[in-house]
Amino acid sequence: AHSYTKYNNWNDIQSWIASISSSNPNLISKQVIGNTYEGRPMTLLKLGKKSSSSKPAIFMDCGIHAREWISPAFCQWFVKEALSTYGSDAQMTSLLNQMDVYVLPVFNIDGYDYTHKGRWLNSRMWRKTRSRKSGSSCIGADPNRNFNAGWCTLGASSNPCSDTFCGYSPESEIEVKNVANFIRRNKAIIKAYITIHSYSQLLLFPYSYTYDLAQHHSELMQVAQGASAALRSLYGTRYTSGPGATTIYPAAGGSDDWAYDLGVKYSYTFELRDTGRYGFLLPESQIKPTCEETMLAVKYIAAYVRKNI
Ligand code: 0X9
Ligand code: ZN
Ligand code: ZN
């Protein structure tokens, strides 16, 4: 059964998507943006007060990497909090009145499912998609190396057996193609792109495919520092902000750099808790505090974007 303080498997998340979207039809709707390699529907949730005119939007995804279980947990938490605080929390109410928030609860569903059900000891540590190609016995590509942003030039591998395999071409992974197509189709309204990963407690922004600073570097840094301060105010959790290339490592083909170069100025990658004690195996007891503090950072970015469009 589904619980916000558990790591739900794909089956439970799928039923949760169906029930939450039908129980709140005035604030939430769903649409399938395509299927995964193994045929699972990629269902995107749209949060926002219904409006006759089209609203500016924020796109947020979770679960690009299969083993980063706290990430999908955060997207589920965000949806719950958005629905339950709309009308009482002033910031959430203004956000959903003026903007729509698109939430993709699990990007790499096949990989996520594999980390729950795989038959091997190390299945829990799977990172990539689950696509196959004849000629190689190795499975999957790294979705965050498969976007068309300096594709496979830096910090990525062309070896299909590597955990950072960039894929056979940009957007070779159907999950990446589906998300990229949605964002391209809606780029006129999408003002911010937020992608949730773990772990390391970082708030990253472009670029990662080059050491060059982004055109909007100082504003992106200012917003990231404000968001980190908001996050820290709850339990004292410290985040480091900065461009990906110098703050974590140079790595091309990421969704944040791709969205930014498409014209989505406010493009952020979160690396949630912790800093390595548990790493990807963050205990379920940390889901609630992690999600509550991250809400403050995401709401900070959203409020900034809403006031500056
Ligand atoms: O390497 C990644 O894809 C991310 N770190 S993780 O440990 N979750 O795998 C960082 C992504 C930063 N952005 C880009 N490299 N574009
Ligand atoms: Zn990741
Ligand atoms: Zn709460």
Describe the structure.
This protein is an alpha/beta fold. It has a single domain (10-307), classed as Aminopeptidase, CATH 3.40.630. It contains 9 helices and 8 strands. The protein has helices spanning 10-23, 70-85, 90-98, 109-117, 174-185, 217-235, 244-247, 255-262, 287-307, and strands at 28-35, 41-47, 57-62, 100-104, 190-198, 202-205, 240-243, 266-272. Helix 2 crosses helix 9 (287-307), helix 3 (90-98) packs across helix 9 (287-307) and helix 6 packs antiparallel against helix 9. The longest helix has 21 residues, at 287-307. The mean pLDDT is 98. The structure holds N~2~-sulfamoyl-L-arginine and zinc ion (ZN) (2 copies). Residues 81, 292 line the site of one zinc ion (ZN). Its cofactor is Zn(2+).
Architecture blueprint of SSEs:
Layout lengths: L9 H14 L4 E8 L5 E7 L9 E6 L7 H16 L4 H9 L1 E5 L4 H9 L56 H12 L4 E9 L3 E4 L11 H19 L4 E4 H4 L7 H8 L3 E7 L14 H21 L2
Bound molecules: N~2~-sulfamoyl-L-arginine and zinc ion (2 copies).
